[in-house]
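Exercise 7 asks you to align residues with tokens for two separate proteins.
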Amino acid sequence: MADPPLHLGFEEAPAPFESASQNARVWTEQWVSAHLFCPNCGAARIDQYARNRPVADFHCAVCAEDFELKSQKGRFGPSIVDGAFRTMCERLESAENPSLILMNYDLARLSVTNLFFVPKHFFVREIIQERKPLAPTARRAGWVGCNILIGQVPSAGKIYLVREGEQIAKDQVLEQWRSTLFLKDRGAAARGWLLEVMKCVDLVGRREFTLDDVYAQEDRLHRLYPDNRNVRPKIRQQLQVLRDQGYLDFMGRGRYRLRLDSQAAP
């Protein structure tokens, strides 16, 4: 049975603020509260935390998954502005980082155009970029923020529910989320290598690929891990882990196939 269609329009609510961005924040938060299910456990809704909670915006009462909502009119670029750099690094170390909900909206039509999730197990220190301290003349002089380098997240970590105004089936969203849960049990260093090899597979650009296709990314991995003198054995090791975890299939003679046809961000 097909999923009931999502209502992508914002509710018929008055504009409480003069600022368009403030109104958009209210409308997008209301939409998430009214329509979004939990991609981790499938619960029918997620609940909003009290405003100004420092870590997350929403949570699932069933599985306790936390979410942070970021929304904007245009598509997201390769990086997303976030909060304090030190706080973000501490969250990563404590495993309390929320998963992301990334939404694009159309203010002319008052509707959602794109929405995808980024599970928290795709966050590693390498995708957190430290920004320059604020100038001495700024109100918060010396404060250091950060960017999330979302462009460096593998396509499997960008799980669409709405894409160009079209709804993705709930079962497909849940399956793609589940397909990478094995990353949660890995330490930061092990997860970093797995994510980099997943990105190498992305760069091949085909669902079916060969070991030589991944070896072609060897120089890139050397630059990322200059102290590692055994990059090719490491690649083979990570591909074996991904095979054992059901992320991809080994087809023999150095050939592999992705188990899911992941939907990369546009």
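Second protein for Exercise 7:
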Amino acid sequence: MLQILEGSTYKSCQSPNYNYFFRKKDGVFLEWGATKDEDPTHAPFPNLVDLEISKVVDENFIVDKNKYNVVDKGCNGCEFCYKLANKGQKTISMKTKTFDTLMSKLNKNRGICQCAIGINQISTCPDFWNIIKNCRNKHSVVPNYTTRGEDLTERDYKNTAKHCGAVAISYSDRDTTYNTVQKFIFHGTKQTNIHYMISHETLNKCYKVMDNCRSDKRLRNLNALVLLMFKNKTTNTFTTITDVKIYKKLIDYAKKLKIPLGFDSCSAYNYLRAIQGEENYETQSQYVTSCCAARSSSYINIFGEYHACSFLEGREEWGGGLNVLEADDFIRDIWNHPQTVKFREKNIRCSREMSNPCKYFDKTQ
């Protein structure tokens, strides 16, 4: 029998083969299988959801205005964006009712712990703060989001501290990013991170950002510098780093400076190979989560379509995805759909073999 237990500061799952404990104030998440020493291969439901609530579209895109808001504003663009968000003249965003419908289906058993809200800009999402508040108060899920920080107001900073578990600032330029970090921390968001995409072309600047984490007062209380692996989904001209020696050098430099460093799960294989042989390898490896797509996490795009992760959206494996809005039972119709199960089994096998399950991630050297 599976039970979800929840208090004001925690959420836990108890079952014979899968268990977790989640602490709401700082995102600490522990999971185990039948025993505390057993790592589960997957969860019986997603405990983390990546949910896109806004999207830049072409001016001729037809929108269902019962489900979405429309703002005649595109995006300033970001050279790192794998969604090509700078291609379009208007932004569509979910209405609160659409979000609530999706979350009610996704979280019927109340087992989801966190939701990463995907947005273009807060200023282009009229229902953004209603969605954030409902996510936490109505659906009992801690919301987080990522921003470049260019359009934020004092209200946004205060609401983030009050309602969100964490926030990440996508690195754009030094002053925009560092000033945004400082403001979030000043207003009380302790779990404030910088997301920095690493590739061969951005590597040198990454070291400068590391130096700044030690020397720039605006970053004094930064929670972590999180490095995101570049995966070439679009026609970007960046090059994926596959040499673990480069990762080892990054990790050692962060240790030398004594700065908090993190990686996305796409980097897990490179990270683990980079620290192999270190005296505390076994301890460090316990804090590493490899690809959790279709194992414990889900990606849902703005149209309510499920994909194992956002990098698979529109690809041949998934096409248009699986429609959550039309599903009667998310666990049966989506989470345990044959397509999801097939991907999950491959992901589990690759994780056991310490190989890479993602076709967009170059083979590790």
